[in-house]
Specification:
Layout: H1 2-10, H2 19-36, H3 42-55, H4 74-78, H5 80-83, H6 87-98, H7 102-106, H8 111-116, H9 119-130, H10 135-142, H11 149-159, H12 164-176, H13 178-189, H14 192-195, H15 207-224, H16 229-244, H17 248-272, H18 276-279, H19 282-312, H20 331-343, H21 350-375
Length: 376
């Protein structure tokens, strides 16, 4: 009896706990705190924090792969949704079903702001190469600048699967920290006169154009950048469901049940890649630092093109909407709107900022496709 009791006590996780796991449990707790207490993208950070918490519980067997004698741990099975490239396209289907491209179609020149925000992707890529990462690893790291978690995961799986955890956590963390990172850059790049600009109300867009748009973008995008097809086609397919107006059940499914379920499993799976022995490395710190570089330069690129459009249009474009060119939808658009209202409470930039915001989603998918076409 005592032998069995001793075996039970020795099998407790307390005796297997390492300093690295303690550190990672603290980091998981911080992510959960930021999600619940501070409201930083809880739909993303809460599952990631929970997954990181699970991954660092010693002796749980949650990360154990099957070996012919034992059944695999939880991570082994839910990670198949990432490894088989199922989760990212399904997330894009849901995003497409929730996205209104009307503001972009009403003001097509804001496509340029979405394109300009990809500047951070290539800046971080070059910086990563200078720090010693391979070109494929650097490309996977650079896509963090697009502020699009599913795209970052998709590209990492293709080019640098061993860096999936740090890249995914970095991408989602900086998406959640948009309200903290972007406003200081917006105030630094723009002046008060520019921030006070009130833009004209966008013109309404016909249903016919809204239906043609996702089909046209899919055709053009896939013809030019075939590797972007899985993400781009699902994004536009979801939008076609929404704009058709004839498949309300499918649209509601994509907007709600599907994207909610996939988001939870994707976030939890990403968090479970944060095991201490994998995550606590110098490479992780470098990737997190490069994520700041990528995201900051993407924001700056959008703002600089916004300033150029302000001058070209004779002051009709508020350059603050350029920061929304990153594809953190709709958080980045809300931040542009909120900063604008700090200087003019009667200024409503949200719909104007949604144009470059949704353009950024398309732009990041295309940038990922270009990198895959060159390096894949």
């Amino acid at each position: 009896m005592l032998d069995h009791l001793e075996k039970f006590v020795q099998g407790m996780g307390f005796w297997q706990l390492t300093g690295g796991q303690v550190t990672m449990l603290a980091i998981a707790g911080l992510l959960i705190y930021l999600a619940i207490r501070r409201g930083f993208e809880p739909l993303l950070l809460l599952p990631i924090g929970f997954g990181a918490f699970l991954a660092n519980l010693p002796g749980s067997g949650l990360l154990t792969p099957p070996d012919g004698e034992t059944i695999g741990g939880l991570y082994y099975y839910i990670s198949k949704g990432i490894e088989l490239e199922i989760f990212p396209p399904l997330i894009f289907l849901g995003i497409g079903a929730m996205t209104d491209f009307g503001p972009l179609l009403a003001n097509p020149k804001t496509f340029l702001l979405g394109a300009a925000a990809q500047f951070g992707v290539f800046t971080a890529l070059l910086t990563a190469v200078a720090l010693g990462f391979s070109l494929k690893e650097a490309a996977a790291i650079g896509i963090i600048g697009g502020a699009d978690g599913p795209t970052a995961i998709y590209l990492s799986l293709k080019l640098a699967p061993h860096l999936l955890g740090p890249i995914a956590v970095s991408a989602y963390s900086y998406m959640a920290l948009v309200p903290l990172i972007q406003p200081p850059l917006m105030r630094w790049i723009t002046n008060e006169k520019e921030r006070l600009v009130v833009m004209e109300t966008p013109k309404p867009v016909s249903k016919k154009i809204k239906i043609i748009f996702p089909l046209a973008v899919t055709v053009v995008g896939v013809f030019i950048v075939p590797p972007a097809a899985p993400l781009l086609a699902m994004l536009m397919g979801g939008n076609l469901l929404k704009e058709s107006g004839v498949v309300e059940r499918l649209t509601n499914m994509a907007q709600n049940e599907l994207i909610n379920i996939v988001t939870f499993f994707l976030g939890t799976c990403v968090g479970m890649t944060m095991a201490a022995d994998v995550f606590l490395r110098w490479e992780t710190l470098k990737i997190l630092s490069l994520g700041v570089v990528a995201f900051s330069f993407s924001t700056i690129g959008g703002l600089l093109v916004g300033k150029l459009m302000y001058k070209v249009t004779g002051g009709k474009v508020n350059p603050l909407i350029g920061s929304a060119g990153v594809s953190a939808v709709p958080m980045a658009a809300r931040v542009s709107h909120n900063v604008g209202q700090e200087y003019n409470p009667q200024n409503y930039l949200l719909m104007h900022a949604m144009g470059p915001n949704v353009a950024g989603v398309v732009g990041t998918a295309i940038a990922a496709g270009i990198l895959l076409a060159i390096l894949g």
